[in-house]
């Protein structure tokens, strides 16, 4: 679940990381980035950061309470993942590239902030707040180290700094991708394989949404829907939401201002052209789509929350303008969401996401 950074006190964000300041004074040699990478759930997870000399002090004795630290005195630490990650039992981090920071809330309470947009912090940047466990070290680690390690079915992200260790635990989810069409444009569904756990069905029965995938247009600045399932007590339905149109309009306005100041700039002009084309497509889409499903019970039990796409039969009509009819992308006509003894059938067409035009 994403949050807005404004929930963290602004005075807190203004504090300069104490450790970074100390490291900057230690020497002028520019370090090279390093990191760690691991394979899990059929994909890769990696962290990238700049090594930092920290000394032997603990983090809590080196930082002021409330400090947000990018784990660097240069570019922030980066998390890259091709699989989905679940933290604290329900906080989902979809595949992508993220900036990371730690937040020292109070003594013994630390958080990992995983920013979902941009390389640098800006007010309002969405992020996911992950709990961190703090442990002391008998042998201090004077150079910052971030590592990844699988422990059974969970992934540990550990940060060693001075006399302290911070650790976050994730559950990696395999990702299944399915090509389709949305209002005539190529798109990709991204389905996440949630693990077998009683909490999954309990959350559905408690009317909580579970994001089990995304839908994105395969174009620059294409629309991205967060696709969740939830129950209203009578059945299960799909809830697909997007902020892409709003974000792209803001980005277009900002890029246009940059171009007006810079004068002629081919790169900015190209970006504006791509944004305008994407916005034209997105203005024909709904920003909030709900699709009801037909539930069938007493089926063979399956161990997790699983999604299976229902493809269009082979004899389906080839889309107009397809360059290779034998391999043309056609829309799927639905998918089945399975959990426990239940199967929920959803019908999805090329026009399911089309904006309604009222007369």
Fold and architecture overview:
With 359 residues, the chain is of the alpha+beta class. It has three domains: 3-172, no CATH class; 175-242 and 288-347, no CATH class; 245-281, no CATH class. It contains six helices and 21 strands. The strands form three sheets. Strands 1, 2, 3, 4, 5, 6, 7, 8, 9, 10 and 11 form an eleven-stranded antiparallel β-sheet that branches. A hairpin with a 2-residue loop joins strand 12 and strand 13 (185-192). Helix 5 runs antiparallel to helix 6 (266-282). The two termini are 37 Å apart. Residues 1-27 and 316-326 have low confidence and may be disordered.
* Strand coverage percent: over 45%
**Structural class designation:** alpha+beta
Q: Please, how many helices?
A: 6
Outline the low-pLDDT stretches.
1-27, 316-326
Oligomer: single chain
- Helicity, in percent? 10-25%
Tell me the count of domains. 3
What structural keywords apply?
single chain, 359 residues, alpha+beta, 3 domains, eleven-stranded antiparallel sheet, six-stranded antiparallel sheet, 21 strands, disordered N terminus
